[in-house]
Design goal:
The protein is an alpha+beta fold. 25% of the residues lie in helices and 22% in strands. It has four helices and nine strands, in the order αββαβααββββββ. The chain has a four-stranded antiparallel β-sheet. It has a three-stranded antiparallel β-sheet with strand order 3-8-7.
Length: 209
């Protein structure tokens, strides 16, 4: 009887500790977004820390801001055969943040209810409409200096890319500019550039305002 009681107490203690650990991990993920995969390739450049840029108050003092990985040619081509390195980005903002014009410290943009699978197109249309954007599937109708492309796979949105730089300028030879996961920024020569097995999907929507 005593052994059973002791066993139950141990189970409760272990469960509590496990929950505490999971909470801490969740907080770290919320802070650094480490659950977003870096596309691993043995010859990719190592990440480097920028000592002049530190975390926002939300993550104050945890670590310096980190540059996103610059992919090797093979690893880059897995995503798109017409992509080229544009510039180093940071790990604390993602493709949607960049599409919306945000690349500051801790600027990750992703609704919690979207999960890792991403929103459906209808869910995203409602989300972006509230932010003053219109959307279309006809590139000729997308006007203005704030234009970005939405890519979907199996009914869920997976990736976003800008038409112009954050300053509203065009980059020669680049039809799109985007942040790849927590990696660097890449330009593509096509508006629908991603390979079938890239995980980013096909062009599904164009947002503009």
């Amino acid at each position: 009887m005593k052994r059973t009681r002791i066993y139950r107490v141990l189970v409760v203690v272990v469960s509590a500790l496990s929950l505490l650990v999971n909470v801490n991990v969740a907080e770290a993920m919320e802070c650094y977004k480490e659950f977003w995969a870096v596309y691993r390739c043995s010859s990719c450049e190592d990440t480097a820390k920028d000592s002049k840029m530190t975390d926002s108050a939300f993550c104050s003092g945890r670590h310096a801001r980190q540059y996103g990985v610059k992919l090797c040619t093979h690893c880059k081509n897995v995503k798109s055969n017409c992509a080229s390195f544009y510039k180093r980005g940071y790990t604390d903002y993602n493709c949607l943040a960049y599409a919306l014009g945000r690349n500051g410290v801790q600027s990750w943009v992703w609704e919690k209810n979207w999960g890792q699978i991403g929103p459906t197109l209808d869910e995203f249309k409602k989300y972006i409409s509230k932010r003053g954007y219109k959307y279309t599937t006809d590139g000729n109708k997308a006007t203005g200096k704030k234009i970005f492309y939405v890519y979907a796979q199996s009914g869920h949105v997976k990736h976003f890319a800008r038409k112009y730089t954050l300053d509203g300028k065009k980059v020669s030879g680049a039809a799109t500019l985007s942040k790849w996961g927590n990696g660097a920024l890449y330009g593509t020569a096509s508006t629908d550039p991603y390979n079938f097995d890239s995980g980013y999907g096909k062009l599904a929507l164009i947002c503009y305002k």
